[in-house]
Amino acid sequence: MTSLAYPANRSLDVICFGRAGVDLYAREDNVDMTDVSGFDKFVGGSPANIAVALSKLGAKAGLISCVSDDGLGRYVCDYLRSLKVDLKGMTIDKSGSRTSLAITEMKASDCEVVIYRNNAADLALSIKQVDKAYIAQAKILLVSGTALSTSPSREAALAAIRYARDAGTVVILDVDYRAYSWHSPEESSLYYQLAASLSDVVIGNREEFDVMEMLDKQSTEKNDDETAFRYLNDATQVVIIKAGELGSKVYTRDGKNFTQGIFPVEVKKPFGAGDSFAGALMYALLQGHSLQESVKMGSAAAAINVSKKNCTEAMPTREELMDFIATYEAA
Amino acid sequence: MTSLAYPANRSLDVICFGRAGVDLYAREDNVDMTDVSGFDKFVGGSPANIAVALSKLGAKAGLISCVSDDGLGRYVCDYLRSLKVDLKGMTIDKSGSRTSLAITEMKASDCEVVIYRNNAADLALSIKQVDKAYIAQAKILLVSGTALSTSPSREAALAAIRYARDAGTVVILDVDYRAYSWHSPEESSLYYQLAASLSDVVIGNREEFDVMEMLDKQSTEKNDDETAFRYLNDATQVVIIKAGELGSKVYTRDGKNFTQGIFPVEVKKPFGAGDSFAGALMYALLQGHSLQESVKMGSAAAAINVSKKNCTEAMPTREELMDFIATYEAA
Amino acid sequence: MTSLAYPANRSLDVICFGRAGVDLYAREDNVDMTDVSGFDKFVGGSPANIAVALSKLGAKAGLISCVSDDGLGRYVCDYLRSLKVDLKGMTIDKSGSRTSLAITEMKASDCEVVIYRNNAADLALSIKQVDKAYIAQAKILLVSGTALSTSPSREAALAAIRYARDAGTVVILDVDYRAYSWHSPEESSLYYQLAASLSDVVIGNREEFDVMEMLDKQSTEKNDDETAFRYLNDATQVVIIKAGELGSKVYTRDGKNFTQGIFPVEVKKPFGAGDSFAGALMYALLQGHSLQESVKMGSAAAAINVSKKNCTEAMPTREELMDFIATYEAA
Amino acid sequence: MTSLAYPANRSLDVICFGRAGVDLYAREDNVDMTDVSGFDKFVGGSPANIAVALSKLGAKAGLISCVSDDGLGRYVCDYLRSLKVDLKGMTIDKSGSRTSLAITEMKASDCEVVIYRNNAADLALSIKQVDKAYIAQAKILLVSGTALSTSPSREAALAAIRYARDAGTVVILDVDYRAYSWHSPEESSLYYQLAASLSDVVIGNREEFDVMEMLDKQSTEKNDDETAFRYLNDATQVVIIKAGELGSKVYTRDGKNFTQGIFPVEVKKPFGAGDSFAGALMYALLQGHSLQESVKMGSAAAAINVSKKNCTEAMPTREELMDFIATYEAA
Predict the structure, then answer these.
(1) Mind listing the pLDDT tens digit for each residue in C8-17?
(2) What element of type H or E holds D92?
């Protein structure tokens, strides 16, 4: 159904590109930011989370990112290294940028997150810090779209994609749209479309595809079929449109599509699902599973993640993932 | 000995000018940043601390500052309001700046502090947000020198000083030098000297006066007498040079000077002393104590603060302060 | 040989995208900048020159650009309008940018040009100022690569290319590399390669292609055949590598190539040749001439231009061009 | 009447601080910018003009400024050097700034001037480029207020004033307000007031003093007496308020004031008067003339300047100035 060709003889399965940072979770559940007594410290940032997800499943994952030269930057690196994420592509910035930081309430809904990303270290990554030979060592390059939001990270990400295409490394774009990082929606649309046209797989939710399409569409109607048709061009072989509780619609270049529902669980937090999904999806594809089977494994991993409190630590191992699916299917 | 004339009939005793932010203290003592499990949340920032110190002692304190429009900004405001600090001069910024944030280890020495002050809210304060009439309601304007480090806060602080002089409000400059906030030491020297020449009282430590003097001095020798002589000009009536464990040297316009030693206590943390000192000093002066007596009360308050773990919460009440001095002097 | 398909029923032949500015030419020839008494005033800027070249040959040309809201901006618009260049795509900026200005000595070689392009008006053009429907009215979009050098003009140019592709408008990229406009050679290489991959025709000289290839090449060897092979991909049908006095090498997608020599004339100034070439080339292609014939007409127009003193005013009419070629071939 | 004390034994009479640039004057009189054929080239910029005025009168003048490293920068330096202006304080900037450039119509009124001052070289001057010892070699430091408009030139100018005060060099502030150079009128008011309080003499017109006073005044009334009273404080001994055709009002610290009318001439251009005035005023003061006599000589020099077409070249020599006054008084 899909014709993604992963290069053989690569020392890494997946290199993730984008931010790695610190998440501070409110110590008390269901308490306003003003009233919490303090915070627990975790590693976060979508591509870092995906790298952890891959590593815990047993894949060889690397991360191209940047943190600041201080205790929080060291913490991020130490934690990732302890989970065997390869950090040859990690830059330690000494120019005054700061490791991305998210301070969050712990609420089921309307969860306030205060983001410290003014002069964020990951967005300070530049072309010169991206090593062409390193990208050529991976089967897949996973790019988090937020890396495209500002220069010089924008150019670093576009160069990474170019290097990947030259090396035969499969490119997967996780749209990961954060409005606050972008100068304007028009710029978002422009660069997302450019990056998508150079990617083998594009993963996003309905709202993210709406932003991507804004320079193209006359009307404001939202039609998954038309969206998929628009993007299954140039390099793109697979388009995955996530729809939260409705599951995911998956479209392929050959004109086919299928839907994968979600695994019902009690949701403990409103984030982590997408990163867990992406990690397990790539792991499954590289293990030789079909696209349909891989999307199912991704959905199961997402369900496991949101049913637990934290993000990186809630990423399942291969065993947990398989047990979860088996239990579900036996029910 | 000193001829500071505080205007009568003012609704506020002291307005502090400068940053207010959040301090996150490592939950575990003597553990590296990389290994702490999380952080406790407090209000911090030198002028905010001083306003709290004044308020706890019973003075009417206000704060001219700026925080971001989010849960952490609201926390800072709620906390200060709960301690009766007047916030008519507080701006809530919605332009993308962030409330100043300091994340600290809890160690007796070599204590790492990771500072998030890229596009800090307090440094986004501009002239238009400073109300001339508000400053005319206070007996003293206490300016934290860090507010001078970058535009537009620099101009807001200089305008505040100008308004204070026009209104007869006594101006006290707390040098509070943080190298990372400044473009160059030359600029620091230039603006500190300008601000000092417009201030009635200048408080700093030896290192801070060295920075202030760098455009003036030929040699690198450090001589407190010469420093005081240099600054006891223009508007300046009192120069206080703090020397840590050696106590403080106080010089006045009439050519006199005295030294105040420290009150020996077991030090729990390496910060908070200066803010507690400044708060109690101003409180005492406004209560009609002599300069010498006031400096002693400031030193006692500093000792109380560093003997406890937190900063704002360790500021003494009037009773605590008086008891502490009485106990010490009885010993 | 080439399969460029120009859309029919378009109200404009070519829309040029990029800077329009003022050229001040030293009044005295062969005199240093320090000693010239003054300057003569002309309209300049590569895409403006090309629009003029087209218009004088009889083609319907438009220009998407931006000038400042002052006498020099009005001069540029008045002059272009007097030559029937369509200015529906012209923006008048009131934000403080300035019309591009070049002040030049008039020397046969080592001719100093002082460029005023800090906050240049043309580089202030943004996506929102580019009208999709306007671009759909033209047969060809000619993009000057300098428009890619900085944001927001970079995004405006990339959006224009995207709109052109959607509308079936043929895209021609004139590399026009000016190092001083770019942040780094790596960024130049990245964006030129992106733009080239979306262009039907790419025109540059050897040095410009070297910059474009710097992210791709291992070695530093310069080989026109390899360069052409690298770029004749994606959308690109024709690659033209100009080599000054050696003429131009033209490569097409079908694997063929040919060389066009120059028309020998006495050179009066070292610029204008490329713009005259591009204008006449596009004019000829749209008139139905073969690629080979069109390149010859471009070369003849270039020769005519450099044999005269000024730039826009030296662009030949159709009659002059045909007479020049006839005279040359009769000799 | 005034007690300005010029230090003796100085190698320079006056050092002017601020911009030096190129003026391009329309070749044709009374023709719109769009229609002029070209421009004549001159040196301009208020402090450069004043230095020239001083030099032509026979005083030893220096200039602290910055031009770009190109033909126009070299032209400025060559011209000033040819008139014996000392350029030890001139910086040649290679960072991408450009020499200040003004392109003007030649009309009696409503004369459009297009200013190229984005990243102007003179505003790139920083503290480190100002030599304390050099300023100590002059009797007077003349600061053009535009130098205060943006960093780092703002700090360089404030440091120069500080160095002058330390060295006993008399400080004269020529307000020279250009709204387009400033971030906001509030900032202008703040820094002009700071600089004025450190200056021995302040020279401006009514509109300039209005800007200076905007942070101080409640009402919008304009009263020269009140303005003078406001500024005759701190260091300031003399305030000169210019009122165009009405002449100048001069106020001194001792509470006295006088008015000097203008010398009637046919005005050829609307600029140059102020620079010629300032130059001749300082020359006369240093020659030992009374303040009243010096202001008269300044007014005569202003009249001579505006009666001729150019600016620097229209500055009178001592002979011309004396003849002009003698002729006038004989009439």
Answers:
(1) 999 999 999 9
(2) strand D90-93
Half-sphere exposure of A165 (CA within 13 A, CB side): 20
10-residue stretch averages of pLDDT, chain C, 331 residues long: 83 98 96 97 97 98 98 98 98 98 90 96 98 98 98 98 97 96 95 97 95 80 87 92 91 95 88 94 97 97 91 92 95 81
Please give the residue that has the higher pLDDT: either D311 or A35: A35
Chain B residues touching D191 at Cβ < 8 A: 155
Q: How close B247 gets to chain D, by Cα (Å)?
A: 32
Closest B-chain CA to D167 = B216
What tokens appear for A131 in the block? Answer: 């090593």
What residue in C sits closest to D38 (Cα-Cα)? Answer: C40
Q: Nearest Cα to B195, choosing from D186, D166, D156, D158?
A: D158
Find, in chain A, the residue whose alpha carbon is nearest to that of C186.
A127
Tell me whether D235 touches chain B (CB under 8 Å). Answer: no
Residues A278 and A50 sit within 8 Å (Cβ to Cβ): yes
Give yes or no for residue B187 having a pLDDT over 80. Answer: yes
Task: Please tell me what DSSP assigns to residue A264.
Answer: P
To the nearest whole Å, the CA of C187 is away from the closest chain A CA by: 7
ipTM, interface predicted TM-score of the complex: 0.94
In which band, very low, low, confident or very high, does the pLDDT at D220 lie, cut at 50, 70 and 90?
low
Please give the Cα distance from A198 to A162 (Å, whole number): 8
Please name which of D112, D188, D111, D202 lies closest in space to residue D150, comparing C-alpha atoms: D188
Cβ(B94)–Cβ(B67) below 8 Å: no
What superfamily would CATH give domain B14-318?
Ribokinase (3.40.1190.20)
Round to whole Å and give the CA distance between A223 and A2: 22
A294 neighbors A285 (Cβ within 8 angstroms): yes
CB nearest C155 (choices: A155, A162, A187): A187
Looking at the partner chain, which of B166, B184, B194 has a beta carbon nearest the beta carbon of D194? Answer: B194
Structure tokens at C59: 């083609």
Copy the structure tokens of residue A200.
């083998």
Is residue B271 a contact partner of residue B309, using CB atoms and an 8 Å limit?
no
3-class DSSP assignment, residue D134: helix
Give the best residue of B25, B68, B78, B114 to mutate against chain A (max A CB count within 10 A). B114
- Cβ neighbours for C142, distance < 8 A, ≥ 6 positions apart: C14, C15, C16, C17, C47, C50, C172, C174, C278, C282
User: In Å, how far are B245, B313, C11, D196 from B267, measured between CA atoms?
Assistant: 11, 16, 82, 48
Residue D271's pLDDT band (cuts 50, 70, 90): confident
* CA–CA separation, B14 and B34 (whole Å): 40
Of A202, A275, A257, whose CA–CA distance to A53 is shortest?
A275
A127, A184, A216: residue with CB nearest C186: A127
CA distance C249 to C237: 14
Which residue in chain D is spatially nearest to C25 when comparing CA positions? D38
At B40-55, the pLDDT tens digits run 999 999 999 999 999 9
Identify the H or E element spanning A251: strand A248-252
Cα distance between residue D315 and residue D276, in whole Å: 6
Contact between D37 and D27 (Cβ < 8 Å)? yes
pLDDT for A13 equals 98
Q: Are B240 and B250 in contact (CB under 8 A)?
A: yes
- Extents of the domains making up chain D: 14-318
Cα→Cα distances B173→B8, B133, B237, B250, Å: 21, 20, 12, 14
- Cβ <8 Å between B216 and D166: yes
Q: How many beta-carbon contacts under 8 Å exist across A and C?
A: 46
Residues D314-324 as b/e (b if ≥16 CB within 10 A, e otherwise) read bbbeeebbeeb
